[in-house]
Amino acid sequence: MGWGKMFFTVVITFSAALITYNILISANASFKQEFPGPSSAKRLFSQDPIIKMPLERSNNNNNNKKRLFHTAVTSSDSVYNTWQCRIMYYWFKKFKDEPNSEMGGFTRILHSGKSDRFMDEIPTFVAQPLPSGMDQGYIVLNRPWAFVQWLQQAQNEKDYILMSEPDHVIVKNIPNLSKDGLGAAFPFFYIEPKKYESVLRKFFPQQNGPITDIDPIGSSPVIVT
C-alpha cells in the first residue's frame, strides 16, 4: 500500500470515529431549560453579559403548557443541501411528537428562486436570491434575505422560531429552550469578537462595554420569539 492510500485510509477512519463520537455525545446530552448564572461556577459562561438573565424568573413558566416553535432551515437547491434537508426533515418527523417535545411546524426556505421536485416531500417556501452581484461573492447573504422574505410572506402561527441549517441533525426531541421572551442560542468557541473589534465597534460602541460582552453565537441554531 502506497503512502497516499495509507493516508487516505487514516483520514477516513479518523473522520468516521469523530462523527460517531459526536453522535453518541449529542444523543446522551440533556437539554436543560435553565439560565446560566453565578451559582454555576463550573460552567464555561457564568452569565450572559449583554442581556442580564433574570434568574429569579427561570422557574416561572407554566410547565403544563407547551410552547411550540417552528423550525425554519435555509437551503440552496444544490444536491448536497437537498440531501441534508431530507435527512433533517426525516428525523424531525421521528421526534416531533415524542414526550417533552415542543417541535411544531417545519419549513425549508429554498433560496434558489424556483421550486424543485422535493416540494411535496418537505414543506417548502421558495425565496428569491439576491440580485446578481449584490452578495459581492459572499453567497451566504442569501440566507438572511431568504428569511426576511419568509417572515414577510409566510403564514406562521407559532410564537417561536428555531433558525436552523441543513447540516443540523436532530438526534432527540427538542424542548423550547427560550424563556420569558428571551432567545436561546449555542455558543461557538471559534467565534471571537475580540479579533474583529474594529468592525464590531461600528455596531457596538465603546460606551456599551468591552467587546467581549458580545455573545459568541451565530445565526443558528437560535430559538427566537
From TrEMBL:
One of its GO terms (molecular function) is glycosyltransferase activity. Residues 69-224 form the Hydroxyproline O-arabinosyltransferase-like domain. The keyword Glycosyltransferase applies. It is found in: Membrane. Keywords: Glycosyltransferase, Membrane, Transferase, Transmembrane, Transmembrane helix. It holds the Pfam family HPAT. One of its GO terms (cellular component) is membrane. The keyword Transferase applies. This is Hydroxyproline O-arabinosyltransferase-like domain-containing protein. The lineage of its organism: Eukaryota, Viridiplantae, Streptophyta, Embryophyta, Tracheophyta.
